[in-house]
Amino acid sequence: SGASKWDVRQRVWDELEASGLADFPRPVHHRIPNFKGSHQACCSIKELDVFNRAREIKVDPDKPLEGVRLAVLQARKTLLVPTPRLRAGLFNKIVPPSGATKEILRMCATSQGIKEYSVPVGLDAKARVDLVVVGSVAVSEKGWRIGKGEGYADMEYAMMVSMGAVQEDTPVITIVHDCQVVDIAEELLDDHDLTVDYILTPTRIIKTNCKRPKPQGIIWHKATPKSYEMLEKIPILKSLRYREKQTGKDVTLRDEHSDLANPNTPAALNEKAMAENTRPQPARSSAQIRQHNVENDSLNPSLEGSDVITTVYVGNIPPSLRVSELKCALREFQATPLRLNWQGAQHRAFLDYKDKATAECAVSSLKSLSLGGNTLRVELAKNQRNKGQVEINSQK
Q1: What sign results for the dihedral spanned by CA atoms 184, 10, 230, 128?
Q2: SS3 call for 204
Q3: Is the alpha carbon torsion for 323, 316, 123, 239 positive or negative?
Q4: Domain count, the chain
Q5: Of the candidates 15, 252, 2, 33, which has an alpha carbon nearest to the alpha carbon of residue 137?
Q6: Do 49 and 176 sit in the same domain of this protein?
Q7: Using the 8-state DSSP alphabet, how is residue 308 labeled?
Q8: Does 242 reside within a domain?
Q9: What is the pLDDT, as a whole number, of residue 174?
Q10: Which of 92, 217, 281, 351 is 20 to 30 A away from residue 169, measured at CA?
Q11: Where is this region: Disordered (predicted)?
């Protein structure tokens, strides 16, 4: 048929709009589409054994899955929702207030409620997901799935595999309108595409008996330019890659070496940036060196304009961690500070950056980084004038 994934998406979106089946938010193009009857389709999940047995259920934040999120909360099961664009970790756990009324549970199932009642779950929380519910643009009765094209559902699933949160046999369910169930050519599927085991529509429950294996964690060497972009945007992905690298896994990205020939690829840009960071700096006078605090270990001697230097506080450092391990992680995340003030005994360190923008960038890169089994606490230091000295003294 020669249809691409985009052709299939376009056809489904157009049909939902043309037939009057599309529901808020509209138009449904470029989204996981909401449709009339989605609530009914969601309710049939309660008839499935895999739902009734499950304790922890991960449900995507899309509008058509609201009914599933409500069913999970009403059944007093643990609801996990991916954080928006995975910016702050992998999941948020939705924790309704104790004694929540039906109305409040309804609220918790909406996107607003996800914001208000959620608690982030770090990479180290031993989340065990028993059931995964994803939205789709199109799906076939064989279980092939097409999402909206950003790769987040596939990426989330691969990350859950890497974290040990899902097993090979963890069932995956999708909720769609009947008109979204279409034939999809198998050659359109990639290794990293997530397949589904159950499809719920307003009129049917389809068990796909899909035999195609699900993604086996993150396939780093198959990473595409889009994955480079995701690595930049998703701190937890960097964290996961760093952690897998430490266990000896090969996390080399595709073309990480050959890409240097093309100066515009992200890998080459990083190399270029690193080269610029390591240019020889002008020598400093002995007076400047003398005034340099001994316990501040300077990783980068270009200390001009120190009036705008911004300090980042790193807390929850495990007692076993050595300063060299922290430095290695900082380099890996391209967050090398001008100065590092290590206070291992107090389980913390202060990092000085040349300005606020660089510091904020470092904070977002290092969010959700875990070292030695602890997820680090990373934030701009409270008192910027005295580089953390005030906080230290006030605690004596």
Answers
A1: negative
A2: coil
A3: negative
A4: 3
A5: 33
A6: yes
A7: G
A8: yes
A9: 98
A10: 92
A11: 248-267
